[in-house]
Design brief:
By secondary structure, the chain is α+β, with helices and mostly antiparallel strands. It has seven helices and 15 strands. Strands 1, 2, 3, 4, 5, 6, 7, 8, 9, 12 and 13 form an eleven-stranded mixed sheet that branches. Strands 10-11 form a two-stranded antiparallel sheet. The protein has a two-stranded antiparallel ribbon with strand order 14-15.
Length: 347
């Protein structure tokens, strides 16, 4: 039975919002205010405030629906319902189920705003590739226990426009069409936002750092990867190894250190209770807007110096580097191939 055949009537989503000044607020301080009151708060942050395009940060809290897929076990929980679990007979059905889950929510009216106000927020792990490609993955000892795909719909979404120093607080009520949203929840959250007091907690490491591969083992993997590239088996291999170390305290401090060391347009900290994921990236994997999909393949990079003339010289060095140029051409070709599989016109 296909996923589409099981669709019930869509859940109507009533939304309302307030606009507040945000010139004294930061995404980090807002997260610290909200996380102790709302379990499972997600933060998507941009440190690029110079243009209007990438100047938004988001906080999502109070999840009301969840889509989780791992090892072909699909668990969905819809507003006001208990979670339901099913086994996918074919991994390739995953995209259909995710599309059906997304389309099961219907806004009562368009927001009229030119930025994200609601939707599904979550993650896909690298292991999710076998739900979309003809790739078979083998479980390895010590493999990650993070689910392959998790997406959630949230009661509350905060959108911060850094370019204009303003904040939008959205409340989404997943109710029937004739029901009215609750009365004063936005007042309570606004008071929490304006509260200048928030708790911070210490963080310190314990024990020794360990890895799933020694330096010698990792170098051997690199040599093996070079061999497969030279044979023409692959265009590119991204090798990695995992480092881990015990700690006590609040891991959000690690994210705060990361955003200081590596500020970027795409920062995130997702708290799922039993696990947390966070990171920093200069590029988006893919951006889809109004029926247009855009990829931004990035090859070589350099650390900005703060001096325009020095930055220009470093940029020219990248342009003149045959290795960097070849890698960039390869990534552009791969991006074009990926888009050509799903898009009509690729340029």
């Amino acid at each position: 039975m296909s996923a589409v055949s099981e669709i019930s009537a869509p859940t109507i989503v009533h939304s309302r919002h307030r606009r507040l000044l945000a010139d004294t607020l930061t995404p980090v301080s807002l997260y610290l205010r909200l996380r102790d009151q709302f379990v499972g708060t997600l933060l998507l942050e941009s440190s690029d405030y110079h243009g209007n395009n990438n100047s938004f940060s988001y906080l999502c809290f109070s999840p009301v629906a969840r889509f989780e897929l791992d090892k072909n076990q699909l668990t969905t929980q819809r507003p006001g319902q208990l979670a339901a679990t099913t086994t996918l007979p074919d991994p390739r059905q995953a995209l259909g189920y995710l599309r059906e889950f997304r389309e099961s929510f219907k806004p009562a009216a368009p927001s009229g705003l030119p930025f994200i106000t609601n939707g599904l927020f979550g993650h896909m792990a690298y292991e999710a590739v076998h739900y979309f490609e003809d790739v078979t993955l083998r479980d390895k000892p010590g493999a990650s226990t993070v689910p392959a795909i998790v997406y959630q719909a949230f009661r509350y979404v905060i959108a911060i426009n850094h370019f204009k120093d303003e904040l939008y607080l959205f409340e989404h009520q997943y109710l029937g069409e004739d029901e009215e949203p609750a009365a004063d929840t936005l007042d309570t959250i606004e008071t929490l936002i304006q509260n200048r007091n928030f708790a911070t907690h210490a963080f310190h490491l314990t024990g020794e750092e360990t890895s799933n591969a020694t330096d010698a083992e990792y170098l051997e993997l690199i040599r093996l990867g070079q061999h497969h590239c030279q044979r023409g088996d692959v265009f590119q291999i991204v090798l990695s190894r995992r480092f881990q170390q015990g700690f006590q305290g609040d891991e959000f401090n690690v994210y705060r250190a990361l955003r200081s060391l590596n500020p970027s347009p795409y920062l995130f900290f997702f708290d799922y209770g039993s696990y947390k994921i966070f990171g920093s990236s200069p590029e988006s994997q893919i951006v889809i807007n109004k029926g247009q999909a855009v990829l931004y393949p990035i090859a070589g990079t350099f650390r900005r110096t703060g001096d325009d003339a020095a930055d220009a010289r470093l940029a020219q060095q990248l342009l003149d580097d045959p290795k960097e140029t070849a890698e960039h051409v390869m990534l552009v070709d791969l991006a074009r191939n990926d888009l050509s599989r799903r898009c009509d016109v690729v340029a």
